[in-house]
Structure prediction request, 315 residues.
Amino acid sequence: MSQDSKKRFDRIVAILIQLQSQRIVRAQELADRFQVSLRTIYRDIRSLEAAGVPVAGEAGVGYFITDGYRLPPVMFSREEAASFVAAEKLMQKFTDASLRRHYASALFKVKSVLRGQEKDYITALESHIHTVPLTAEVPDALGVFFDSIAERKQVEITYQAFDSDDIFQRHIEPVGLFHERSFWHVIGYCHLRKDYRQFRTDRILSIARTHLPFTIDHHPPMEELRSRTESSPDVRVVIRVKKPAVRYLRHSRKFYGFVSEVEKDGKVEMTFMTWNGCEGLARWYLTFGDHAEIVEPEFFREMVRELASTTLERL
Prediction:
């Protein structure tokens, strides 16, 4: 079999698997995934039909496989199976107890279809990959939100804000979730405030499903809502960092309003646009302050000095 023929065969098998995994698959979605033309996808679909796979299509909607058609379990390669192990470790660290249990159950099913050598490979890997699980106040918050979004049912939460001792109850219509700075956040329409609000899941004291349907037919996209809930940065902070230390900051600096960097006098000058408080940026700066200096503004320098002084007094 030529290399081109093998690639086409692998692509057709992958298309079949995707058709089995979704109710409807658009031709453009397949073309984007495999980086081929729509004409190529149409030809591949005809090949599946010729092989006896009952693929149906509807103009403007997509392709689907007739109910009742199933193939035997798909075999995973060793590398694919290993990726599930890595994902499981990440699930242990970044999700709550409920999702960890569900994923562990799903992984047992994946392992059940592996060949003997692949099972040995996975067993050898599992004991050498370690993460520290996330401790969550509400073990199944993410699972409840997933159900709510998929079923379009409201959720009732008891919540405590960071800057308040007050505890309040809200009915919300979750729109989406995102993970940022080691925490999960949910954005949803709050019926008390009659507007969209953002909630951190570790501050949720209790959560309950309800039978109340969503009252809004179409919520705005997540990207739009996130931009609404975040105020615009208004303070320019410039710091200068020794070059050897820069590579250790490139991941975390994006959380503090990083804008740009430029080399000056053998050091790297970084510019941040942050919020008026600047406290988060100041505390982050102290973690590597012995390798850096503050260029501007002066009040940021004073803020860092005060934090450092308070820390020294308590040692």
Remarks:
- The two ends are 71 Å apart (CA to CA).
- The CA atoms of residues 175 and 273 lie 28 Å apart.
